[in-house]
Amino acid sequence: MNQFVAILITVFFLGLIIYFTVTHKLKDRYAFLWLVTAAAGVLAAACIPLLNRFALWIGIAYMPTFVFLVTIIFILALLVRQTISLSKQADKIKTLTQEFAVMEKRLLELVRKTEGREPL
């Protein structure tokens, strides 16, 4: 029964990811990562007895501890990836702001030069 509930929840999550991808609420850049994550969740839910054996094999007596460990590592990796992406975006915004300021200055100089001339 627990395995059925786990499969049901992970299939629902997979359906949400597919829905968000189809409606373009989730960009393609991130959709693949979340689709793989949801599929891995469905697979893990379907293979709970194998996860129990694997956890025991690596020395973890309580399988949910193993699942939480893997989940925490995944979340940390995702946070690092998002932080890197955010840093790149901040650099791009800074560069665009600087370029805009230079273009605005040039435009003002051009307007001042043309104000002194008579129209053609």
Automatic annotation (TrEMBL):
Membrane found in the keyword field: yes
TM region(s), chain numbering: 6-23, 30-51, 57-80
Protein name per the record: DUF2304 family protein
Keywords: Membrane, Transmembrane, Transmembrane helix
Pfam families the UniProt entry points to: DUF2304
Species assigned in the record: Paenibacillus sacheonensis
InterPro entries linked to this entry: DUF2304
Domain of life assignment: Bacteria
